[in-house]
């Protein structure tokens, strides 16, 4: 799902909001999450998951084109850990059409 698909879906589900309002809400949410992560804070969305920042130490890397050894500086990278509810919903078997059970195929 892209950002524009998210905005379109939220606007469709909330007809009392204009698309401009939904765009502003989504932008504000992402901006606040980004600012919190930049400060090294943890962002948790209950039932969805948690975003944290992990530090990666400096190391010696390799240029894949030339094979030359290069120094890779220390950096911070965002990390996402899915919440229990999200994991359960993703791993739940899909519902069968017309309310039928997902059993073996009949010949």
- Please give the share of residues in helix: 25-40%
Q: Report the biggest beta sheet as strand number plus sense, adding barrel if it closes.
A: 3 strands, antiparallel
Query: Helical region count?
Result: 3
What is the end-to-end distance? 38 Å
Q: Overall pLDDT, averaged?
A: 91
Radius of gyration: 21 Å
Q: How much beta, percentage-wise?
A: 25-35%
Number of strands: 5
Strands across the major sheet, in which order? 1-2-5
Shape estimate: extended
Structural class: alpha+beta
Poorly predicted spans: none
* Sequence of secondary-structure elements: HHEEEEEH
Task: Quickly list its features.
two-stranded antiparallel ribbon; about 25% strand; about 110 residues; alpha+beta
If you had to describe this structure to a student in words, what would you say it looks like?
The chain has 107 residues and is an alpha+beta fold. Helix content is 36%, strand content 25%. The strands form two sheets. A three-stranded antiparallel β-sheet has the order 1-2-5. A two-stranded antiparallel ribbon has the order 3-4. Helix 1 packs across helix 2. The chain starts with a helix and ends in a 16-residue tail after the last helix.
What is the gist of this entry?
This protein has 107 residues and is α+β, with helices and mostly antiparallel strands.
